[in-house]
Request: fold
Amino acid sequence: MKKHVLPAIRNIKDLEKLTKTDYKICVLLDMHVGHLKSIMDLLKQHNIEAFIHIDLIKGMAHDEYACEYIIQTYKPKGIVSTKTKVIQKAKSLNKLTIFRVFIIDSQALNRSVHLIKKVEPDYVEVLPGIAHKIVKIVDEETTSKIIAGGLIDEEKEIDEAINSGASYVTTSNRALW
Reply:
């Protein structure tokens, strides 16, 4: 188990692998709303907590009302979203938050830093996670902890992200769990 990795669960095979590891926290991506109860029950049986990515739940809206429903019904460790209103709702319900930002150019970087300062999430997931320069800037300019995600498929990329200021790295590459 790598202490700075948050397994990103996209499917049942990922879930099966996760339950055979020592990880006690994960991020759920690309889930169908009809499967959430059984997935959360399975995770609970294995004492694994989950951050649920609201924007990627199929079969429901991706707004603050869905966020409130998910929190009240499934009691996740926290919520992941690209939407400020969802992050604010989760914070108001005392859940940990991961604000996911896609940094593709300097304008996106400036806008993201502004939004991070405005909503003050617990964590910011910076994508692509291999963008170490951006991880360092976001780490220096905001007070949120950084999670690097996206395109990370080598051990050295995990190390580079952590050395740039990230607290964690999300990866769906099971070989890195």
